[in-house]
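Good morning C.,

I know you're traveling, so I'll keep this short. The sequence:
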Amino acid sequence: MAQRGLENGTMETGDSRKSEWVRLNVGGTTFLTTRTTLGRDQKSFLYRLVQEAADLNTDKDTDGAFLIDRDPSYFGPVLNFLRHGKLVMNKDLAEEGVLEEAEFYNITDLIKVVKERIVERDAKQNQTFMKNVYRVMQCSGQELTQMVSTIPDGWKFEQLLNIGSHYNYGTEDHAEFLFIVSKECPTVLNGSDESSDRAKVLQLKGTRI
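The tokens, ready to paste straight into the viewer:
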């Protein structure tokens, strides 16, 4: 039976399949994988690369590895996804970078997975939590009754502090007080949360006066 030499130096018979192992030189970094792995998505560029290399006129390096001008750090997650169907990536890599590579190689399932992770990540970063906002108002003894009766909706009374009187001869009615109320407000995690209530005399977050 006739035999012929392959570019990588191995021999195959006329009716045998090509070598299962494939070398890829991605941005100067060499990856060793199999045709089976690269062929998981038959619509992808990588499948076409190993099936139709001659038609694609793909260049190879001196070791016979297919040359691909892409970022090797983001190719790792792409290759691992083809190997076991899960997206595994280092914390210092951005999902958007993996998405860019997935779209370049046209790996449909990976594109879907990365987009879902980006949505989950953004939702987590924008989650809200409740905080206590305190409002402190100064009033006289004569104004206390009115102050209590006009507490805005959503605010609750916290504390009343007697800060003395400005009058040496003053009665109880001339005493000055700090009237403290609080309210629970949502705040965005990792986002800005500047209060719109410009009338606050004092605002403390999470602590009491």
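Safe travels,
E.
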